Amino acid sequence: MPLPKQNASGWLPEGVHSCTWGEFKARFGSNGHRRKLLVGLRRAIKTLLSVGATTVYVDGSFVSTKEYPSDYDACWETDGVDLARLQRVEPVFFRFENRRAAQKAAFFGEFLPAGGIELGSLKPFIDFFQIDKETGRRKGIVLLDLRDFE
Fold it and tell me: Order of strands, edge to edge, in the sheet holding 110-113?
C-alpha cells in the first residue's frame, strides 16, 4: 500500500505508515539536499542491519512537505540487535550529547532507540515522534522494514 499524501499541515496522516526503501527514496528524495540526507540515512541503516536491526522509523520535517529539511529524525527497534557489536562497529549510535551532533555529523540525522524515553514528555520515542511538537496533534511517521532493504 503506497504512502498516503501529506495533509494541509505538511505531515503524514496519523499513524505508522510502511513503505519500501525504493518508495521512500522516490517520495522524499525530491532534490539534491534531500538526496544527500538519504545517503546518510542509508549508511546508518546498513550499519543497523549488519547488527540485527529489522525496523527503523523516520520522522521529522524530512517526511513532511518541507523542501529543505535540516535533517531527519529516526528511531530503531532494539529487539534482536547485538548492541555490544553495534557499540564496537559504530559507537556514534550511543552518543546523544550536544543534541546528537556526532550522529548528525556522521549520518546527517539522528537516531534514538524506539523504546527509549524522551525526557521532556516521558514518552517512548516511537510515541513522541507521532506528536507535532508545535500543535500537540498526532501525525504520521514512516516505518522502514529492513528485511526488505535494498
Answer: 15-19, 140-145, 55-59, 73-76, 110-113
Per residue in 84-136, pLDDT (tens digit) is 999 999 999 999 999 999 999 999 999 999 999 999 999 999 999 999 988 99
Cell 535533517 belongs to 71
Phi, psi of 94 (to 5 degrees): -105, 10
Q: What contacts 76, CB < 8 A, 6 or more positions away?
A: 48, 53, 55, 56, 57, 111, 112, 113, 114
Q: How crowded is residue 7: how many other Cβ atoms within 10 Å of its Cβ?
A: 15
Q: Compute the CA torsion angle 99, 81, 51, 112 (nearest 10 deg).
A: -10
